[in-house]
Amino acid sequence: MFKFLKEVVGGSGTGVKDLPYTVADPYPSAWGSWTHSRGTSKDDGSPVSVFSLSGSNAQDGHLAAARNGVKRLRTVRHPNILSFLHSAEIETHDAGSPKVTIYIVTEPVMPLSEKIKELGLEGTQRDEYYAWGLHQIAKAVSFLNNDCKLVHGNVCLASVVVTPALDWKLHAFDVLSEFEGSNESSAGQMLQYAWLVGSQYKPMELAKSDWDAIKKSPPWAIDSWGVGCLIYEVFSGLRLGKTEELRNTGSIPKSLLPDYQRLLSSMPSRRLNTSKLIENSEYFQNKLVDTIHFMEILSLKDSVEKDTFFRKLPNLAEQLPRQIVLKKLVPLLASALEFGSATASALTALLKMGSWLSADEFNVKVLPTIVKLFSSNDRAIRVGLLQHIDQFGESLSAQVVDEQVYPHVATGFSDTSAFLRELTLKSMLILAPKLSQRTISGSLLKYLSKLQVDEEPAIRTNTTILLGNIGSYLNEGTRKRVLINAFTVRALRDTFPPARGAGIMALCATSSYYDITEVATRILPNVVVLTIDPDSDVRTKAFQAVDQFLQIAKQHYEKTNAADSTGGASLGSSSVPGNASLLGWAMSSLTLKGKHSDHAPVASASSTAITSKSSNDATDIEMPSTAPARVSSTTDLAEHPVPTSPTSTDGWGELENGSHEEHESDRDGWDELEPLEETKPTPALANIQAAQRRPVSQPISQTKQASNLRSKSTPKLNKDEDDDLWGSIAAPAPKTSKPLNLKASRTEDDDPWAAIAAPAPTTKAKPLSAGRGRGAKPAAPKLGAQRINRTSSGM
Fold it and tell me: Which positions does the entry assign to HEAT repeats (predicted)?
């Protein structure tokens, strides 16, 4: 006899402690004299099953059969046969008498009868699951009979166990032996342990010990009879008491009945081979069997078949038994995606089926696979992950996002595909809250700085929306440096109307982060200009923002007068708390049809949807620029230099290179505009600034000039960095109608701001009309407010 691993322990110890496994509670049923118990590995705590059988001495017949079962189980390997892990034979002494116990450790399983009660399946789902289980047992029996020329000898309900993945597996190999029709000794060896088989499970020739009939019959004759007994017990829900009960076919499905009768034929030679049962039976042709079978041979399918299958799988999974889907299909699908045999469309099916799992099971069965997929170079996989990130993003831990997910996702910011750049941008709504401040400041903001001058207007718009959403996750220093510059210098000056609208809304949503000085000197001057924006939706948002920030200024005024605060308190309240209004903004999907255009006409830029359309016709449309002029002049900056932020590593203060080099004079980086409040004004200057904030009556000639300007096309002027638009409005309009220090040739009609203008610069200013036309030379700096056109490519 083949010698197997044997451990002999003397003394009075129990012997179980010497096993590398812990034996726990037993199941209520098991095959033969075996005891089937739950167990765990002492090394890693993984679950196992422990089968044990005890005898009074080493020559006990049950022990001899058990040794045969251990030997066969160790040497026979098949996906539908129980997997062997470890075995031991331990001899102990109990009250002076020896006791031998054989242990077999296998993968974790439970008896089929117990699993059927636990699942409680009914109707079509029950029949589909039984079909799958019987299909697996039939393959195992066919493997033994046809490929190995072995006979199991006792196929029945007790000899089948179920794995955690709900697979049926065959075990109980105590009676197993070789079968050769021409070799009488082989038949005798099989019959050596035939006494272990219950009489109700024995076919007629075996019950009569008709050795000649057994030798002449095919190798599958005895086991085909056993499969018939298994089918009866499974569908009737009862243990077979006597052979005559097999004639009760009321519980057998009609599609399976003809094959059931052939399996139990009284003539051994006419019994149905289990391999033919798998191939021909109509009963096994159902959705569950076909689906699992396709998944198991997935590597043999071509890409078209895979794609078709995975597109149908989400709807098909809803029709299959839920427990089988979660415990069998989900692991198969996750493994196929992880090792590359599944297409990107399988990700949708995995996430849908994964949504039926509990949070803990999802984190164990699905999430590890998803995290690994982020490192995939397959663009379709990356797109699928980003499109569905809202379904699993909340389950990702901050450490996993920061260390394993974000480094791979960030490559999409600079991808050549605009669609992938936009999806990457949208994914930050989920991932950004889980990033560390170091990653946000050192990496994310640098990418967002570039995306705010992206060639696609929708991406620029959505970048502004994202900044408004993640403002609460930035530290205070980063917020002061980034937000105002991002929204006023770039967003409010964008040529795409929805981008300007997004900038206004972002300012409103983040209003709680700005103090009163920033509101009065940097936000309101830029927003007020947009109240005359060509786009009606932008104008509406601008008036709403002006009302909101004026209300904030009024509240500060009232508090100051009432002496409620000690002074210098930062702005607190906002009609839109935090970034709540931005959370409902939907980011658009790019429609890449033809050449993109920054000036694509948009009917509305509502807070619920922003859609960008590209067309060849749109390239000929020019949108009058309403970008606000720079608040501080070059002279002011020179007089009050501000040190560069030591943490300015996020790229917001950097100038764009390449195609934007010709616009370096625009200097629209986020760190370029320094808050005016950093320089404490003198009392005299404070009075002047207060006068600037008071409304100024517009002269009649000014109204006339404004009307004339609106009747003509908007002039295109280049912006000059040295303009100081608000510093010249230092005092009320003088009484004389003649401008101070100006030549007599300049009239009020030439300069509507002449009545309140500061002394003229040393250079001679040309009339406003001289700057019109595309080929005109850049005009010399003028005093007063000017309309300045700016394209997004110049940012």
Answer: 366-404, 523-561
Residues in CB range of 437: below 8 A, 6 or more apart: 474, 475, 478
Encode pLDDT of 34-90 as tens digits. 999 999 999 999 999 999 998 887 677 889 899 999 999 999 999 999 999 999 998
DSSP designation for 457: H
Q: What is the value of pTM for the model shown? A: 0.66
Would you say the C-alpha torsion 697, 700, 705, 710 has a positive or negative sign? positive
User: Would you say 189 and 177 are in contact if contact means Cβ atoms under 8 Å apart?
Assistant: yes
The structure tokens 């720079």 sit at 630
Distance of CA 16 to the CA centre of its chain: 46
Residue 499 is inside which H or E element, if any? helix 497-509
150 sits in which H/E element: strand 150-151
Please name every residue paired with 169 in a beta bridge, in sequence order, or none if there are none: 161
pLDDT band per the 50, 70, 90 thresholds, residue 346: very high
Listed in order, strand segments (DSSP E) in 21-121 are 21-26, 35-41, 47-55, 84-94, 97-106, 110-111
For 689, residues 6+ apart whose C-beta sits below 8 A from its C-beta are: 521, 681
DSSP string, 332-388: HHHHHHHTT-S-THHHHHHHHHHTTS-HHHHHHHTHHHHHHHTT---HHHHHHHHHT
178, containing H or E segment? strand 177-178
SS3 601: coil
pLDDT in tens, 522-577: 999 999 999 999 999 999 999 999 999 999 999 988 888 886 544 444 444 444 44
Q: Using one digit for the tens of pLDDT, what is the confidence trace for 487-510?
A: 998 999 999 999 999 999 999 999
DSSP string of 459-472?
HHHHHHHHHHHHGG
Give the containing element (helix H, strand E) for 547: helix 536-562
- Pairing relationship of beta strands 150-151 and 110-111 according to DSSP bridges: unpaired
d(CA 690, CA 354): 62
Question: Hey, is 55 helix, strand or coil?
Answer: strand
Q: What is residue 26's DSSP assignment?
A: E
